[in-house]
Write a structure and sequence with these properties.
352 residues; mainly alpha; 15 helices; EamA_dom; membrane; EamA domain-containing protein
């Protein structure tokens, strides 16, 4: 009964993790609907507000959760502080380009950046970390390169927005892997690095009369302030999902965000999709199908190998135990050796 209860609790926990994951990637996929609501604010002003309000929101969350011990530990590690500064710059570049792309009618091209991000991450692993790829991964990378070439011909130039978004986010992921701190803590540290420059920029905008915060009504003020929630809430859901569902499931869920963005770009923002773009996107999707199939097959093979090794170890342990028990039983049942009593020594005469 206890085992059944534990299994049921595990299934419920995994189902909750799946919902958290869908919520996280769903929010990231639907965020293109939010940025146009902040106009007439420009991309730089929106980015600055996002930095300031994200830090405020995350700081409150960390205070409520009483998670402050990581701050002095981080301060004592200069190398990690440097990596956080690099992460802050790369994610601000990613955020800024993404906001600008959405508000200038490039939602489809932005979605392409997140479609090819896993492929760029693999390529960076080969170039920077000297990782070895399986044949299917090489195939996916070459198909992705062909897709970029097709799209470059279609656009008349390389898809710069997609490439900037993909490479900046892949670099961010690479740096984050080396930082290795919690999601909320990392976001707090990264936004803290750029808090003063962002706040200074907003003050300068206000002093020059160019700021939209406060001049477009309370509704727009509230929307700009809510950029902190829009940034942190998906991250919280992602963190809750990451500890409940397998990594392979998260790997599949990550495609929800660019799929939503792509669909929004065509159906809601009515962006053009000429045949050459369809051809380029189709090649990217083919590369992702190959990559996903290879990842799932490798995960299944690794799991089977782990189960086989576990079973062999258990069988070997059982055999050893049985052998030891049999030996002990044989020793217990063996007749004890009969020994002759030692001859008694004659008593010496009493000296008295």
């Amino acid at each position: 009964m206890k085992a059944d209860g534990d299994q049921r609790a595990g299934l419920l926990d995994q189902r909750a993790g799946l919902l958290y994951g869908i919520g996280a990637y769903g929010m990231w996929g639907l965020v293109p609907l939010y940025w146009p609501l902040l106009e007439p604010a420009g991309a730089m002003e929106i980015l600055a507000h996002r930095m300031v309000w994200s830090l405020a929101f995350v700081a409150i969350g960390l205070l409520v959760l009483r998670r402050r011990r990581w701050i002095p530990e981080l301060i004592r590690q200069p190398r990690k502080l440097g990596l956080i500064a690099v992460a802050a710059v790369t994610i601000s570049l990613n955020w800024g380009f993404y906001i600008w792309a959405v508000n200038t009618g490039h939602v489809v091209e932005a979605s392409l950046g997140y479609f090819i991000n896993p492929l760029v991450t693999i390529a960076m692993g080969v170039l920077l970390l000297k990782e070895r790829l399986r044949p299917a991964q090489w195939t996916a990378v070459f198909i992705a390169l062909a897709a970029v070439l097709v799209l470059a011909i279609g656009y008349g130039q390389p898809p710069w927005i997609s490439l900037v978004l993909a490479f900046s986010f892949a670099t961010y992921g690479l740096v984050k892997k080396k930082i290795n701190i919690g999601g909320l803590e990392s976001l707090a540290a990264e936004t803290a690095v750029l808090f003063l420059p962002a706040l200074g920029y907003l003050v300068w905008l206000g002093a020059s009369g160019s700021a939209t915060f406060g001049s477009e009504g309370t509704g727009q003020m509230a929307l700009l302030a809510a950029t902190g929630v829009v940034t942190a809430l998906p991250l919280i859901c992602f963190g809750a999902a990451a500890i409940r569902v397998p990594l392979s499931t998260l790997g599949l869920l990550q495609y929800l965000a660019p799929v939503f963005q792509f669909v929004l770009g065509i159906t809601y923002f009515h962006e053009a999709m000429p045949p050459e773009r369809w051809a380029g996107f189709s090649l990217v999707w083919l590369a992702l199908v190959i990559l996903t199939w290879d990842a799932l097959r490798n995960a299944r093979r690794t799991r089977s190998e782990a189960l086989r090794l576990t079973a062999e170890a258990a069988e070997a342990a059982a055999t050893t135990t049985a052998s030891g028990s049999g030996s002990g039983l044989a020793q217990a049942e063996a007749p004890l050796p009969v020994t002759e009593p030692a001859p008694s020594r004659p008593r010496e005469p009493d000296p008295r």
